[in-house]
TrEMBL record, chain A:
Pfam families: PhnG. One of its GO terms (biological process) is organic phosphonate metabolic process. It comes from the Bacteria. This is Alpha-D-ribose 1-methylphosphonate 5-triphosphate synthase subunit PhnG. It comes from Rhodobacter viridis.
TrEMBL record, chain B:
It comes from Rhodobacter viridis. One of its GO terms (biological process) is organic phosphonate metabolic process. It comes from the Bacteria. This is Alpha-D-ribose 1-methylphosphonate 5-triphosphate synthase subunit PhnI.
Length: 153, 357
């Protein structure tokens, strides 16, 4: 049985899932799916920086250590109707970050259904296909051991 | 000490123009694109990202092009670039358990849940030059079979469940950061691992090999080696929740090492750990061997004086940018220094010649 989830919590997890999907998607693909952007004002212009990636010393529960950095672009903007969108995406593609923030804002309003169909659903399907392809190639290299019987007589 | 000298500007400009021409090579041969380097020299790109300590394949590829394939020069360019970036924060520790696996092998157990997955490896190739690659042509497509969704839990976790592994210990959630604070000795294991993750592959390989040959031997088995994509999660303060900001390819190696026992602990296997950007398994295995060798003190082992046990020696010399910076500075003008040496030796000789026999 699952506990009832408050609307606020489920909204947050849906928003996080959308932002994560958009961050993982190729920036050029996003530009194809959403070529035209609605008018908006910058709250924070796209800025390229670094995030320190952490690992654990021992898989599954070791204490954290600093592994190395990764480039990240972030921005924040406000649509004409006042809705605010945020983005933090891997890499240095400012157009990618901009589109993620626009979609984050659009998903909070009446355009949510349109964006879900036109952008998010295709990205989800393409990501699933990419992951399946990797998994299937990996599966083909899985070793199937068999035991040789040695003649002892 | 060296002093500023003037008068070389024209020569320097000409040298750099020639460098640019040499970088391009024969203009009748098509120019390499950054995308070609990123796609076709992936392991060089991975090495530059690991030792440059900045995950960005396109930047690493650009650095390789600019450096004419000199990977340490490329690492230098990446290190210089990263100092210009504002730091947005730190990620949550990556969960390698949830890795989308490209390769995953264990040398300790044949039958492990999730299986032995070879992935795109050089292992079992004959190491014969393939002259077919000298001609252009598309390779046959990789084989595919339906994948089962069986999880691939960490192999050391299986030993851990039986109580045969040394338990993992907790530590501070905010580990020390070598890029912010200078190295202090004795260094915490978190600091050592950060240094090793960005250390020169050749140096770490040599040290790891020395432990195998008996200089600080630890009897390592590769409990598990895995390569694949991991999500990078980060809490975004403006939003107040955690999201995935991207995915990185990582190589992780966990070694199972000779057991120890003490008055308080039963005999158990010990651990060495390696985690590196990209597909870099030689580096990851080396890192885990050196990590384990450096743990001699906390595990109550004897100091044998082996280089791989000497944290000061390892950490002070493993960074190829520090090393190359200091090494290469001696080719810069030292005219005044050398003049004083020359004066000194002439005086000494005069004094000796002046002495009665």
């Amino acid at each position: 049985m699952s506990a009832p989830v408050s609307n606020a919590a489920s909204d947050t997890s849906a928003r996080a899932a959308t932002l994560s999907l958009l961050a993982r998607a190729p920036g050029v693909r996003l530009a194809t799916l959403l070529p035209d952007l609605p008018p908006f004002d910058w709250l924070r212009r796209p800025e390229v920086g670094a995030v320190m990636l952490r690992g654990r010393m021992g898989a599954g529960g070791g204490a954290p250590f600093n592994l190395g950095e990764m480039t990240v672009t972030r921005c924040a903007l406000r649509l004409a109707d006042g809705t605010v969108g945020h983005a933090a995406v891997q890499g240095r593609d400012k157009g990618h970050a901009t589109r993620v923030a626009v979609i984050d804002a659009l998903m909070q309003g009446e355009d949510a259904v349109r964006i879900e169909t036109a952008v998010l659903a295709p990205l989800r399907a393409e990501e699933a296909a990419r992951r399946r392809l990797r998994a299937e190639k990996a599966a083909a290299t899985k070793v199937e051991f068999f035991t040789l019987v040695r003649g002892e007589d | 000490m060296y002093v500023a000298t003037k008068g070389g500007e024209r020569a320097i400009d000409a040298a750099h123009a020639w460098l640019a021409e040499e970088r391009r090579g024969d203009p009748s041969v098509p120019e390499l694109s950054v995308a070609q380097i990123a796609q076709q020299l992936t392991l060089a790109v991975n090495r530059v990202m690991a030792e440059g300590s900045l995950y960005d394949p396109d930047l690493a590829a650009l650095a390789i092009k600019q450096a004419r394939g000199d990977l340490i020069e490329a690492v230098f360019l990446i290190r210089a670039y990263r100092t210009t970036l504002p730091r947005f924060g730190a990620s949550l520790p990556v969960e390698t358990e949830a890795m989308q696996i490209t390769r995953r092998i264990s040398a300790t157990f044949k039958d492990v849940p999730g299986g032995q997955v070879l992935g795109p490896t050089f292992d079992y190739t004959h190491r014969l030059l393939d002259f077919a690659l000298a001609a252009e042509g598309a390779p046959p497509p990789a084989a595919r079979v339906p994948a089962d969704a069986a999880p691939a839990p960490h192999v050391l976790g299986l030993l851990d469940r039986d109580g045969l592994m040394e338990p993992l210990t907790a530590g501070p959630e905010t580990p020390p950061d070598l890029t912010r604070e200078p190295l202090e000795l004795p260094a915490a294991r978190a600091t050592r691992l950060q240094a090793l993750a960005r250390a020169d592959e050749g140096f770490v390989l040599g040290l790891a090999y020395s432990t195998q040959r008996g200089y600080g031997r630890t009897h390592a088995f590769v409990g598990e080696l895995r390569i694949g994509l991991c999500a990078v999660e980060m809490e975004i303060p403006e939003l107040g929740f955690v999201l995935e900001i991207g995915e990185v390819e990582l190589t992780e190696c966990e070694t199972v090492n000779q057991f120890t026992g003490s008055k308080t602990e039963p005999p158990q296997f010990t651990r060495g750990y390696g985690l590196v950007f990209g597909q870099s398994e030689r580096k990851a295995i080396s890192m885990s061997l050196v990590d384990r060798a450096l743990r001699w003190e906390e595990l109550g082992e004897d100091a044998t004086g082996a280089p791989a046990q000497d944290a000061e020696f390892v950490l002070s010399h493993c960074d190829n940018i520090q090393a190359t910076g200091f090494l290469e500075h001696i080719k810069l003008p030292h005219y005044v220094d050398f003049q004083s040496e020359l004066e000194l030796i002439r005086r000494l000789r005069r004094d000796t010649e002046g002495e009665p026999q």
